[in-house]
TrEMBL record:
Gene that encodes the chain: cysL_1
UniProt name for this protein: HTH-type transcriptional regulator CysL
SUPFAM superfamilies cross-referenced by the UniProt entry: Periplasmic binding protein-like II, Winged helix' DNA-binding domain
Homology family: Belongs to the LysR transcriptional regulatory family.
Entries under InterPro entries matching the protein: LysR_HTH_N, LysR_subst-bd, WH-like_DNA-bd_sf, WH_DNA-bd_sf
Keywords noted in UniProt: DNA-binding, Transcription, Transcription regulation
HTH lysR-type domain location: 1-58
Gene3D superfamilies assigned to the protein according to its UniProt record, in alphabetical order: Periplasmic binding protein-like II, Winged helix-like DNA-binding domain superfamily/Winged helix DNA-binding domain
Top-rank lineage group of the source organism: Bacteria
Molecular-function annotations in GO: DNA-binding transcription factor activity; transcription cis-regulatory region binding
Length: 272
């Protein structure tokens, strides 16, 4: 049942059996079969098959999606609590963070959390900003830390610090940027529009550290945080217009959770 729900969540988000199969590393017939089994258990259709490539969630699917993430989270919590029986009474929190935050901010946050909250255990996964938001919405993480200004229903957003973007690298017509869904990708597209730039070559890279190394090697130019610049490369200031916030995201339903509030307060005090 829980495996079927996990598959359902991915199909719902991607609106595609084939994309869901790719993300789950299983075959498309397996995805179709698991959704069919779930529909049989619920005695209802979850997706209307408009064509081989187009599926549309039913009203039942919309309802299930709102609840399924919480069901999976509760089941995971029970498993972890059983595993920890007899151990110290530590609480575990799962962070999802963007790549930029992983490079320039999270180590400082982790150090403060370890010192301030000794009964806290935490796991960390790194993604792009939209990936972090998706993980939070589907109950795979408890706290998100991103730099892209995303807003969505049922998620609270708190600014926890500032970051200044600059243009770095040699001006040879080549640009290096992150994939769609990332903060750097978002701001790079904004810069292209405002400066009316048409790159000779645009290279997409899904790793901020690699972008930094490519800029250092003279491959091209990129927007980077002024806190994460390679030494010796040309740098151009973009001004306050490209100053961005770092955001902490939590589900609104967890707003009264004592441990999460302690974590939020610790992070907020560290960076403000």
């Amino acid at each position: 049942m829980f495996k079927f729900l996990e598959t359902f969540m991915v199909v719902y988000k991607t609106r595609s059996f084939s994309l869901a199969a790719q993300q789950l590393f299983i075959t498309q017939p397996t995805v179709s079969n698991q959704i069919k089994q779930l529909e049989l258990q619920l005695h209802t259709e979850l997706f209307e098959r408009k064509s081989r490539r187009e599926i549309v969630p039913t009203e039942a699917a919309n309802l299930l999606y709102k609840r399924a993430g919480k069901i999976l989270k509760n089941w995971q919590d029970v498993n972890e609590q059983i595993t920890r029986l007899g151990d110290e009474d530590n609480e575990k929190v799962k962070f999802g963070i963007s790549q930029t935050i992983s490079r320039i901010l999270f180590a400082k946050i982790a150090n403060k959390l370890v010192a301030s909250l000794p009964n806290l255990d935490f796991d960390v996964t790194v993604s792009n900003s939209e990936g972090v938001l998706s993980q939070l919405e589907t109950y795979k993480i408890d706290i998100g830390l991103i730099e892209k200004p995303l807003v969505t229903e049922s998620i609270s957003r708190l600014s926890i610090g500032k970051d200044q973007l600059v243009k770095a690298g040699i001006d040879n017509g080549n640009w290096i940027t992150r994939e769609p869904g990332s903060g750097i990708g978002y701001y790079t597209e904004q810069y292209f529009r405002e400066a009316d730039i048409q790159p000779d070559k645009l290279i997409h890279v899904n790793n901020s550290g690699l972008i930094r190394r490519m800029v250092a090697q003279g491959v091209g130019q990129a927007l980077l945080s002024d806190k994460d610049l390679p030494a010796g490369v040309p740098v151009k200031s973009l001004g306050e217009h490209f100053s961005r916030d770092f955001y902490l995201l939590v589900r609104e339903e967890n707003s009264k959770d004592e441990m999460l509030n302690q974590i939020i307060q610790t992070i907020n005090n560290l960076n403000n």
